[in-house]
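From the methods appendix. Each design record in this collection lists the tokenized structure first, followed by the designed amino acid sequence. Records were kept in a plain field format so they could be parsed without special tools. The example shown here is representative of the layout used throughout.

RECORD:
FOLD TOKENS (359 positions):
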């Protein structure tokens, strides 16, 4: 428990104290994100008040997580685990892809950033390398960071061939990162929702550590490699998100940009994969899933029928155009995310009480 508190506390302090330093540096050089404005053909929500707000704040979140994770291991004089290092790889690798996107938005004032194909290639490289590495490095019990079995609250009997497993992991990581990215359109919305998810994974991975096979005599123990280190990583992500939210909540002093949204999405997907809760991710990342579906429905409906389902997608912009105040949308969407995570955790713990019975 001390490791968890230390990791979360250090990450929160680094993010809370480091973000204003980053804000001053970015403002000093005039590094702010281009804001989309309405035209005669396309109507955007009124965000004129956000002009001049610096972006790339996700760098503070990433730095806070890395510092907290490494310092925690240094204080307790323990080596980072393979699972923890792979989680950091997703955070840093996808954060680098997001940084490239933010660079174009800020330095070239191109609001669309890098081309979608280029971003997908970068995401695919990080995801595929993670997938290949995650099914190697077995511990003394033979558990690898990821399993080729599709998981729900633990591994199911459905085991994928290696090639399909790699594609499955690529899909999970890409879908989650883009879901967080799409949600990052209002002050504090995405990082607040991610904070709730990371908090849920912290609790779940602590439970898995306490009930891990080898450390527990329970019949329904968890076959997870490095559950304690995943808890440390999840706690660090929780603390870093909490500290950043102080500066990102309405009215935002800084945006986290793609640097943050892709990094947080990768961290969430990595935790789902390595805690063996892949399908439960639909609820653990419930708000991000809903936002993504709203975009799919909007694009699909317009291409098939020429009509739009919403006034604008993603979904939060639909409510903006309906006249809802930004803070009202954010808080209500946080509540939706909290309900989704609460339902996911209820399913997770209920399965332990009444074990899932496979063939």
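DESIGN:
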């Amino acid at each position: 428990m001390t490791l968890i508190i230390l990791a979360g506390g250090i990450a929160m302090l680094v993010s809370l104290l480091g973000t204003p330093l980053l804000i001053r540096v970015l403002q000093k050089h005039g590094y702010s994100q281009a804001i989309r404005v309405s035209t005669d053909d396309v109507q955007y929500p009124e965000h004129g008040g956000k002009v001049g707000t610096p972006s790339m704040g996700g760098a503070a979140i990433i730095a806070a997580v890395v510092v907290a994770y490494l310092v925690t291991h240094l204080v307790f004089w323990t080596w980072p685990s393979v699972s923890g290092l792979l989680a950091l790889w997703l955070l840093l690798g996808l954060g680098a892809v997001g940084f490239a996107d933010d660079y174009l938005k800020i330095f070239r004032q191109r609001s669309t950033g890098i081309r979608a194909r280029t971003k997908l290639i970068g995401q695919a490289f990080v995801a595929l390398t993670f997938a290949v590495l995650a099914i190697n490095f077995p511990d003394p019990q033979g558990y690898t960071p990821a399993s080729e079995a599709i998981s729900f609250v633990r591994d199911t009997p459905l085991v994928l061939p290696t090639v399909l497993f790699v594609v499955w992991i690529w899909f999970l990581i890409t879908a989650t990162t883009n879901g967080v990215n799409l949600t990052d359109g209002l002050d504090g919305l995405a990082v607040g929702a991610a904070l709730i998810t990371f908090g849920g994974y912290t609790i779940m991975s602590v439970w898995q550590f306490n009930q891990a096979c080898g450390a527990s005599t329970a019949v329904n123990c968890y076959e997870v490699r490095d559950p304690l280190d995943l808890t440390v990583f999840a706690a660090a992500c929780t603390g870093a998100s909490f500290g950043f939210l102080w500066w990102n909540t309405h009215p935002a002093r800084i945006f986290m940009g793609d640097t943050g949204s892709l990094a947080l999405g990768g961290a969430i997907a990595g935790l789902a994969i390595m805690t063996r809760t892949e399908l439960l991710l639909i609820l653990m990342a419930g708000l991000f899933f809903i936002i993504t579906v709203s975009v799919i429905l909007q694009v699909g409906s317009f291409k098939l029928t020429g009509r739009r389902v919403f006034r604008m997608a993603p979904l939060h912009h639909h409510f903006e155009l309906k006249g809802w105040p930004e803070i009202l949308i954010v808080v209500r969407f946080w509540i939706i995310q909290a309900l989704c995570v609460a339902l996911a955790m209820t399913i997770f713990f209920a399965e332990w009480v009444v074990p899932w019975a496979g063939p």
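APPENDIX NOTE: Residues 123 and 174 are 6 Å apart (CA to CA).
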